């Protein structure tokens, strides 16, 4: 199952995508399906680990019920939130870098 976020900005490179592979076990939905990340784009390994931990909690909450749609929906929402966080962190880092450069320039011009 491929999941891709919408572009959060005008930059076409600012998106996240993941491909989840589901393997059903004989006793599904009483037992969890096996969920694996087959591929990802614009996500770090720690991001993928965080997502998988989150999805495991969703799976545990939904044992006994058909859950693949719920897992995919929750993964999509998680990706969107993570993308907004990453973009915000990049923006703050860039603003800080600009402020530091301006401060260094002011100090340099004072002497």
UniProtKB/TrEMBL annotation:
RWD domain span: 1-82
InterPro entries, per database record: GIR2-like (IPR040213), RWD_dom (IPR006575), UBQ-conjugating_enzyme/RWD (IPR016135)
Alphabetized Gene3D superfamilies for the sequence: Ubiquitin Conjugating Enzyme
Domain of life: Eukaryota
Parts of the chain that traverse the membrane: none
SMART domains associated with the record: RWD (SM00591)
PANTHER family: RWD DOMAIN-CONTAINING PROTEIN (PTHR12292)
Protein name: RWD domain-containing protein
Organism: Araneus ventricosus
Species lineage: Eukaryota, Metazoa, Ecdysozoa, Arthropoda, Chelicerata
């Amino acid at each position: 199952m491929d999941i891709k976020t919408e572009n959060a900005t005008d930059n076409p490179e600012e998106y996240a995508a993941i491909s989840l592979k589901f393997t059903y076990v004989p006793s599904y939905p009483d037992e969890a399906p096996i969920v694996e990340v087959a591929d990802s784009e614009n996500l770090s390994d720690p991001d993928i680990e965080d997502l998988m931990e989150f999805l495991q909690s969703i799976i545990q909450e939904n044992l006994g019920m058909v859950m693949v749609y719920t897992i995919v929906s929750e993964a999509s929402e998680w990706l969107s939130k993570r993308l907004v966080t990453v973009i915000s962190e990049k923006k703050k880092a860039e603003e800080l870098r600009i402020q530091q450069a301006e401060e260094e320039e002011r100090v340099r011009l004072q002497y």
